[in-house]
Design goal:
Number of helices: 9
Strand order of the largest sheet: 3-4-5-6
Strand content: 15-25%
Shape: globular
Number of strands: 10
Structural class: alpha+beta
Distance between the termini: 24 Å
Order of helices and strands: EEHHEEEEHHHHEEEEHHH
Length: 304
């Protein structure tokens, strides 16, 4: 059976231990932990067990060939092939995989769904952070009251106000001295790079894929918050977007520690279960935005 090398994207015999094209470990490709879905039915059960919103909301259709725009899906064709697809916002379809390997096909959609959950959680964090702070509202109300009210505030309240002030000042100072560039594409020395989560990745045109850069110290010295505008770039190459790479799927990291590391795929110890904090809570104030908004949402214009 042929499987795709996650590093150079070439099809290789799964019996091999290393990829003949790039030397990557083939055993790392078949990353099927016991709890990882291997069939369409198992993926459907995984979806339900993790309390995800209805498929019409998430736009992930498992076992269905949906023709509408803005849809991810997997189904078994009449010819026996398993097809993993994405319908873009304009209705055009990008085929991620088509073949007889059901486990591989299921894993492709599973990884994309897992990445989407992480993105949606991050978008909710950004939305909540942008909401007016209740303490700020209180401070504005207090400042508009009579001058005598300030004299009536208790000593603990005054101490609390001082602590808040110190925290704000400290955050401002950190922001001043933070020289890290923002996430995105850069061009340095004629080479395309992508910066994310304190790591640099380079684009290899020969393999049409992204790899961790081996000159990160040089890049950090040259490209920082003061100079990033000189190197910022938009991705207009015909090659693979960074968001379609292995590194994007495995490199996500957020402030609430819903993360997996940059060096490996999902480990069995990190498997989501229906009782964990990583399950989607449909009853909370977190919303799933598949249409896109100021705080993220699904990118329907990319191939994957």
């Amino acid at each position: 059976m042929q499987v795709k090398c996650e590093y150079c994207r070439q099809m290789v015999d799964e019996s091999l231990k290393t990829c003949p094209h790039c030397g990557a470990d083939i055993s790392g490709i078949n990353r099927m932990a016991d709890a990882t879905p291997k069939t369409i039915e198992e993926l459907q059960e995984w979806y339900k067990a993790h309390n995800l919103p209805p498929e019409e909301v998430t736009r992930f259709f498992i076992g269905k060939d949906i023709k509408e725009p803005k849809a991810f899906g997997i189904y078994k064709s009449s010819g026996g092939d398993f097809v993993v697809y994405k319908n873009k916002s304009d209705g055009t379809r990008a085929i991620r995989y088509q073949g007889v390997d059901e486990a591989y096909a299921v894993n492709e959609l599973y990884q994309r769904l897992r990445s989407e959950i992480a993105d949606q959680k991050q978008a909710n964090q950004e939305r909540k952070a942008a909401q007016p702070n209740k303490m700020d509202m209180f401070d504005r109300m207090a400042s508009s009251s009579s001058a005598g009210l300030g004299c009536c505030l208790s000593f603990p309240m005054k101490i609390f106000g001082v602590i808040i002030g110190i925290v704000v000042v400290a955050a401002f100072i950190v922001a001043i001295f933070d020289k890290t560039p923002t996430k995105g594409y850069y061009n340095y020395g004629g080479q395309d790079y992508y910066y994310q989560d304190s790591n640099w990745y380079r684009y290899d045109a020969d393999h049409d894929d992204w790899y961790q850069a081996d000159n990160e110290d040089e890049l950090n010295d040259a490209i920082n918050s003061d100079t990033q505008s000189d190197y910022e770039s938009t991705w207009d190459n015909d090659g693979k977007d960074f968001e379609e790479s292995t590194w994007y799927d495995s490199g996500y990291n957020s402030d609430d520690n819903d993360d997996w590391d940059n060096d490996s795929f999902w480990d069995s110890d990190d498997t989501w279960d229906s009782g964990s904090d990583d399950s989607w809570d449909s009853g909370s104030d977190d919303s799933w935005d598949s249409g896109g908004s100021d705080y993220g949402g699904t990118d329907w214009d990319s191939d994957w």
